[in-house]
């Protein structure tokens, strides 16, 4: 009986912890997306259409992630990266399919926001490299959104 | 003597310049793409209006002639509904380009009916309503945004119930319809820049891989699309060479045939 009660208590505690923690874990990527969208906001006034779809995940300090994206010559693109971790430093850069830096020089990095701008010279695949340069957290959630005009 | 304010501004400009230089110096000018293979995320499939926007910049397009009135049969097989849903959303983008309010409203209703058919109607109802309202006001930017939201909500709802494969079929349906319209426009008014918009080999490989992982969908249209992508691949995977007019015409034939197959019963 005692063993049964103990097991029941353990299981219910674990379940309760999962129920409490799961939204927190999910919320972090959602929060990162909110920050990325916040960075994109001023560009909407300049005619950029920001996509609803986005990439997200978590990275440790100094880790990078590559995102492959089809871009079309004739369009202009901005990629905005955000994280909810205040004191983190993130960066985003764009390379063409040969691995050559393809971005314009007006990209920027401001703490937990970063952005990169590209006017593709050819239609094809490009690599967007996102990186968590520094962070007080072991894992830092990130989200990348993009817009075009 | 430099006034203090001017001195402050000069210092700020110099500091910003130094920061930018330091950033520029840190960013490698070249990376080894092969080394990235293990850390590359999946592609986000471009929306048809991303391609249409680039096409518009090459010259005026008569979008009205690409608006389709046949919105497809009522299917019961979920993969077929998913494919058709992607196609109909793409038709929505064409109708927006043509500024055809009546078609947009009809598409809004159709999207809702199809979403209900695959069990994600609840998440689409507000978007369908917003599409119809924005079309009434001829607010094309809002319609575009709602179509994007619609596709995103449909796919999110599907992913939440682990129907990722259906979600991928929605993207595929949209991409096929977008390619059909793109090749139709470029076939009629050929330009090398227009044809270059078809240079999407990685995206095509992405769809091929996804279809290969759907052996359980034993529908002729799915296998037909799989075979067609094999035919299209060499026509668009041309490296640095240009895509000739003949290839554009062939891709248009293939995608038109597939488009017909998606909206009609076998």
Give a structural overview.
- The complex is a heterodimer of chains A (149) and B (266).
- Chain A is an alpha+beta fold and 149 residues long.
- Chain A has one domain (3-148): Jelly Rolls (Sandwich).
- Chain A is built from one helix and nine strands, in the order H-E-E-E-E-E-E-E-E-E.
- In chain A, strands 1, 2, 4, 6, 7 and 9 form a six-stranded antiparallel β-sheet that branches. In chain A, strands 3-8-5 form a three-stranded antiparallel β-sheet, with no helix packed on it.
- Residues 18-25 of chain A have low confidence and may be disordered.
- In chain B, helix 5 runs antiparallel to helix 6 (140-160).
- With 266 residues, chain B is mostly helical.
- Chain B has helices at residues 4-26, 48-56, 78-97, 101-117, 121-136, 140-160, 164-188, 192-196, 201-212, 220-236, 245-263, and one strand at residues 40-41.
- Chain B has one domain (46-263).
- At the A-B interface, strand 3, strand 5 and strand 8 of A face helix 1, strand 1, helix 2, helix 6 and helix 9 of B.
Write the layout of secondary structure elements.
The complex is a heterodimer of chains A (149) and B (266).
Chain A: H1 2-44, E1 49-50, E2 55-59, E3 64-71, E4 77-82, E5 89-96, E6 108-110, E7 113-118, E8 124-134, E9 140-148
Antiparallel strand pairs in A: 1-9, 2-9, 3-8, 4-7, 4-9, 5-8, 6-7
Chain B: H1 4-26, E1 40-41, H2 48-56, H3 78-97, H4 101-117, H5 121-136, H6 140-160, H7 164-188, H8 192-196, H9 201-212, H10 220-236, H11 245-263
């Amino acid at each position: 009986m005692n063993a049964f009660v103990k097991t029941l208590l353990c299981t219910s505690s674990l379940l309760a912890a999962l129920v409490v923690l799961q939204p927190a874990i999910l919320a972090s990527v959602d929060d990162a997306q909110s920050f990325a969208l916040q960075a994109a906001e001023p560009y909407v006034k300049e005619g950029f259409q920001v996509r609803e779809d986005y990439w997200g995940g978590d990275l440790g300090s100094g880790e990078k992630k590559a995102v492959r994206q089809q871009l079309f010559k004739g369009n202009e693109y901005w990629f905005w990266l955000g994280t909810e971790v205040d004191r983190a430093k993130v960066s985003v850069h764009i390379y063409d399919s040969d691995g050559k830096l393809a971005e314009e020089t007006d990209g920027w990095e401001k703490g937990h926001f970063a952005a990169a701008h590209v006017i593709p010279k050819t239609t094809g695949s490009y690599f967007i490299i996102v990186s968590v340069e520094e962070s007080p957290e072991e894992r830092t959630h990130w989200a990348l959104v993009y817009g075009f005009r | 003597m430099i006034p203090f304010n001017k001195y402050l501004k000069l210092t700020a400009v110099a500091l910003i310049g130094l920061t930018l230089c330091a950033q520029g110096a840190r960013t490698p000018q070249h990376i080894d793409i092969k080394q990235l293979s293990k850390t590359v995320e999946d592609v986000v499939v471009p929306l048809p209006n991303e391609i249409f926007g680039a096409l518009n910049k090459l010259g005026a397009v008569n979008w009205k002639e690409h608006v389709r009135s046949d919105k497809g049969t009522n299917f019961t097989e979920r993969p077929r509904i998913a494919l058709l849903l992607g196609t109909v959303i793409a038709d929505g983008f064409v109708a927006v380009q043509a500024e055809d309010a009546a078609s947009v409203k009809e598409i809004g209703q159709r999207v809702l009916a199809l979403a209900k058919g695959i069990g994600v109607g609840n998440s689409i109802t507000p978007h369908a309503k917003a599409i119809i309202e924005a079309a009434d006001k001829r607010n094309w930017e809002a319609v575009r945004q709602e179509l994007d939201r619609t596709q995103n909500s449909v796919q999110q709802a599907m992913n939440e119930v682990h129907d990722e494969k259906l979600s991928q079929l929605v993207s595929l349906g949209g991409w096929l319809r977008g390619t059909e319209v793109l090749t139709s426009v470029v076939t009629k008014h050929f330009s090398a820049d227009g044809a270059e918009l078809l240079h999407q080999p990685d995206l095509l490989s992405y769809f091929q891989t996804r279809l290969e992982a759907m052996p359980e969908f034993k529908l002729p249209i799915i296998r037909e699309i799989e075979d067609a992508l094999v035919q299209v691949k060499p026509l668009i995977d041309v490296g640095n060479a240009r895509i000739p007019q003949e290839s554009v015409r062939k891709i248009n034939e293939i995608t038109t045939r597939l488009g017909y197959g998606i909206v009609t019963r076998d």
